[in-house]
Write a structure and sequence with these properties.
five-stranded parallel beta sheet, D-isomer_DH_NAD-bd, Rossmann fold, oxidoreductase activity, acting on the CH-OH group of donors, NAD or NADP as acceptor, alpha/beta, 12 helices, NAD binding, oxidoreductase, about 350 residues, 12 strands, seven-stranded parallel beta sheet
Amino acid sequence: MNLLAIADNFIDEETMYNGLKDLEKIGVNVEVRNWYHENQEALQRDNLLIEQNGPEAVELSDELLKDLDKFHMIIVQFAPVSKKVIDKAKNLKLIGVLRGGVENVAIDYAREKNIAVLNTPGRNARAVAEFTMGMILSEVRNIARSHYSLKNNEWRKDFPNSSYVPELNGKTVGIVGFGHIGQLIAGYLKAFGSKVIAYDPFFKGEFEGVKIVDLDTLLKQSDLVTIHARYTKDTHHLIDEKELSLMKENAVLINTARSGLVNQEALVKALKEDKIFGAAIDVFDKEPIPEDDEILKLDNITITPHIAGSTKDAFSNSPKILANILKGIIDGEKNISAINNVEIRL
C-alpha cells in the first residue's frame, strides 16, 4: 500500500516523514513530497485562496502530481486535493487532512468516486484555545495598545473601553461552536470565574457548567463572544450585521477561527460606530491586510497575523495523530468513520 504525503512550510518533509514512518512497519510505503513556497506568508496566501474559493483555486505542480496513480492514500495539510488531483490518482482510496477543516479537498467529488476523507480533529485545539485566551485578555485589558504606546514613547492610560474595563470573573462569555477548541476555552474561562454559555447545533450531550443556548440568546447575553464554528457554506457570515446588532454595546467579539464566519465589513462598521466596545481578530478576508484597509485605522481592536494555531507542538503532532488513526483502520477498528460518509477500505 502506497501513501503520498505532501509537506509544506509549516510541516516540513522531515517532520511529515517522522510522524508517518511507523506506518511502514505495517506495510505502508511512505513517500513525502514538498509543496514549495518561498515563505510561510506565501503559503498562507494560497491557503486563504483555497479556503475562500475551494481546492480548484490553486493548482499543484506537475512534479507533485507525477505517478499519482500508484498511491492509495494522500495526506496533506494545506495542499489542495482538487478534482484534477483525484482524477490523476486512479487508485486512491483515502485522503487524509492534517487539521480539522477540509476546505482544501473536493469532498463531494471524493464521495462520488467512493474515496474516504479523514480529518485530524483537535490537532491544534489547545494552541488556538490558549491563543484565544490571550486575545481576550489583550483586548479587554488593553495590553496590545499599551505596549504599542509605550514603544512609541507615549504613557497612555485612556482607551476606547476606559469607562468599562472588565474582569473575566462573573462575566458571561458566549462560545459559538462547541467542539474541541470551544470546550477547552470553556474550561479556561471557568477557571477565571466566568459564566459560560455556548451555541452549537451539532453538540450533543452536556458539559458541566456550560448552558447550551440558541445563537440570538448567546449574542444578547454575552459580555464577550468568541467564534469557533467550522466554516462551511452554511456558516458563511454566521455573524453579520443583524447578529452584531444583538450584542451588548460593551461587548467584545473574538475570532480566531475563519474570516468567513464574520462579515468583516459589518464588523468594521459596528466598531467605527461604537455599536460594540471592541474585537480581537486573527483571521481576515485578505491576508496580508491591505495597507488601506479600514480595520487598520480602528483603535478598538486587537489584530494578529493568522497565528492562533501556529505552534511547534500542533504542527509536529498532526502527522502522528493521523498515523495512529490510519493504523487503527488497517488493524480493523470499526469505530473510525470518514467525514464524507464513505466506507473506508484499505
